[in-house]
């Protein structure tokens, strides 16, 4: 895991669906779990959603807190 991908979680927005416009880092856990069961999209977006799923599933969302603070 590198810091550039973590930073992308805070900037990349969902381009479609119920959570369109919401950054990947703010997607709810149940939605991330749905992707894990049904399959992640291809490409960069899928990789970011998979990374966010792992952070959420392992209760590591707090790793993003320093990056959030740095952005504000």
Keywords:
72 residues; mainly alpha; 54% helix; globular
What would your notes on this structure say?
The protein is 54% helix and 0% strand. With 72 residues, it is mostly helical. The chain is globular. It starts with a helix and ends with a helix. This is Cytoplasmic protein.
Distance between the termini: 23 Å
Question: Strand-and-helix sequence, N→C?
Answer: HHHH
- Protein structure class: mainly alpha
The percent of residues in helical segments reads: 40-55%
Q: How big is the Rg?
A: 11 Å
Shape from CA axes?
globular
Number of helices, counting only DSSP H or I runs of 4 residues or more: 4
Mean pLDDT: 95
Which residues sit in consecutive blocks of at least 5 with pLDDT less than 50?
A: none
DSSP strand tally: 0
Percent strand: under 5%
Write down the domain tally.
Answer: 1
How would you characterize the largest beta sheet?
A: none
Briefly, what is this?
The protein is an all-alpha fold and 72 residues long.
Layout of helices and strands:
Elements: H1 3-9, H2 29-38, H3 43-57, H4 65-71
Helix pairs in contact: 1-3, 2-3
Protein name: Cytoplasmic protein
Pfam family, one: QSregVF_b
């Amino acid at each position: 895991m590198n810091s550039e991908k973590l930073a992308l979680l805070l900037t990349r927005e969902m381009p479609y669906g119920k959570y369109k416009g919401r950054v990947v880092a703010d997607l709810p856990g149940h939605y991330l779990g749905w992707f894990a069961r049904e399959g992640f999209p291809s490409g960069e977006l899928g990789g970011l959603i998979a990374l966010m799923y792992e952070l959420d599933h392992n209760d590591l969302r707090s790793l993003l807190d320093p990056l959030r603070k740095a952005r504000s």
